Amino acid sequence: MKRIALFPGTFDPFTIGHQSLVTRGLNLVDEIVISIGINDKKLTYFSLEKRIAAIQALYKNEPRVSVRQYNSLTVDFAREMGAEFIMRGIRTVNDFEYEKSIADVNRKLAGIETFILFTEPEHTHISSSIVRELLRYGKDISLFVPKETELF
Questions:
Q1: pTM higher than 0.90 for the full model?
Q2: Is 91 designated active site?
């Protein structure tokens, strides 16, 4: 049986930090489903279609990675995808506290385990929020997003 992990997020945009987590996660599971949650209350910089296309372009030659969108509870979507795990990355202790509380709820609701990967030190400062802020001011983001995503 394949071991599948769901990697949920908004990915607005998908950064080199996210890319690093997927690369490392593939050493732990057979397949990763990058799952873009649709949240009508959250304004995004890039359209859903552009985010999906960018991530698909990045992983076009990696059959163990797929990209899906969902509009439900993450644990429900994880079950729908046959995922045993939810994969998350954390940069700081604040991220840990937030992720732990969600992981506890997901385990109680659906019996799905969460595994956490710490970001590599060189990626700790990178976040989608910071990249969006740079874009708003017309700055070059090429150091922070995978070149294959064709976002710049």
A1: yes
A2: yes
Nearest to 36, CA basis, from 60, 54, 21: 54
- The predicted-structure confidence for 22-47, as pLDDT tens digits, reads as follows 999 999 999 999 999 998 788 899 99
**Straight-line distance from the first to the last Cα atom of the chain, in angstroms, rounded to the nearest whole number:** 39
Question: Which one from 64, 91, 107, 132 is the annotated catalytic residue?
Answer: 91
To the question of whether residue 10 is assigned a binding role by annotation, the answer is yes
**Phi, psi (degrees; rounded to nearest 5) at 12:** -120, 75
Coil, strand or helix: which one is 67? strand
- Does the annotation count 18 as an active-site position? yes
User: Which among 151, 144, 152, 15 has a CA at the least distance from the CA of 89?
Assistant: 15
Q: Which fold has domain 4-146?
A: Rossmann fold (3.40.50)
- Secondary structure class of 35 (helix, strand, coil): strand
Integer-rounded Cα radius of gyration of the chain = 15
